[in-house]
UniProtKB/TrEMBL annotation:
Belongs to the transferase hexapeptide repeat family. LpxD subfamily. Its EC number is 2.3.1.191. GO terms for molecular function: N-acyltransferase activity; UDP-3-O-[(3R)-3-hydroxyacyl]-glucosamine N-acyltransferase activity. This is UDP-3-O-acylglucosamine N-acyltransferase. InterPro entries: Hexapep, LpxD, Trimer_LpxA-like_sf, UDP_GlcNAc_AcTrfase_non-rep.
Amino acid sequence: MKFTATQIAGILEGEIVGNPEVEVSKLSKIEEGTDGSLTFLANPKYTHYIYSTEASITIVNKTLVLDHDVNTTLIKVEDAYKSFSKLLEYYNQVKLNKTGVEQPIFMAASSSYGEEVYIGAFTYIGENVKIGNNVKIYPNAYIGDNTEISDNVVIFAGAKVYSESKIGRNCVIHSGCVIGADGFGFSPNEEGEFQKVPQTGNVILEDYVDVGAGTTIDRATLGSTIIRRGVKLDNQMQIAHNVEIGENTVIAAQTGIAGSTKIGKNCMIGGQVGIVGHITIGNRVRIQAQSGIGRNVKDDEVLQGSPALNYGDFNKSYVHFKNLPKLVDKINQLEKK
C-alpha cells in the first residue's frame, strides 16, 4: 500500500516542502529511516536526525526551523505527534477494512449480522447472537449464545466471547481474550471438598472499551461484571466476577482484580498491581506498578508499595529503608562504646 506526499498532506491538512509526488509504503523511526519510509519529528532531542534521515517523507511541526537543506520531503503540521497518530489510525482503518463472510464458519440460524461486516474463517457464532454494522470478527473467534455485539466492534483472531455477553460500540477485543468465563466461585462442603458455585451472570463492555491480548474478564456470579465506557485494559490481566471499572480508567499489564471490587472513573493503575476483593477505589486514583491494594481508596489518592502507602510516605520510608545498614552499624558502634 503506497501513499504520496500529496495524499498524506491532504489527510493531515499539512504543507509540503519538497517533492509532492514522492511515495512511501512503510513506517520507520527517524533515525532508522530508509528510502520509501514515512517518519515524524516531534521531540526536539531528535532534531539532528532530520539532516541525516533517509526517510522519504517526514512529518514535522510548522515551528521547525532548519539550519540547512534536508533530503527528506517535509509535511509541516500544527502537531507532528498528533498528526502521525491520526495517520496511523487512518492506515489501520484502511488495512483492517475487510468485509464479507469467509468459509467455513458456523453460524446458528437464529443469529444475525448487520451491514459491512467481516467474519473470518473457522469462526463459531452460537444461538441468538446479534451482530451490528461494520463489525470485524477475525478467524477462529468464538461467540457464545445470546451475545450482543454493537456497531464498529473489532474482535481479533482467537478471542472467545462467552454466552450472554454484551459488547458496546467501537470496542476492540484482542487475540486470546476470554470474555465471560466463570468467576472463581467455590464453597467447601462438610467433607472439606470444594464445590462450584454456579456463575449465572454476564459481562458488559460499554462503548469504546479496549481489551488487550490474553486478558480475561469473568462473568458475574449474579448480575454483571461491568467495564464502563472508555476503559483501556492492557495485556494479560485478570478481572474477576462482579468487578466494576469506571469510565476512562486505564490499567497496565498483569494486574489482577479480585471479585466484587469497584474502581472509579479516570484512574491510572500500573502493571502487576494486585487488588483484593470487595473494596472500593475512588475516582482519579493513581496506583504505581507492583503495588498491593488491600483497603478502600479515597478519590485522588496516589499509592505505591505492598501493602500500598501514600506515594509521598512510601518515598520517605524508602529513603530510611535504604539507610538501614548504616543505621545498624552506628548502633553496633554505640553499643560497643
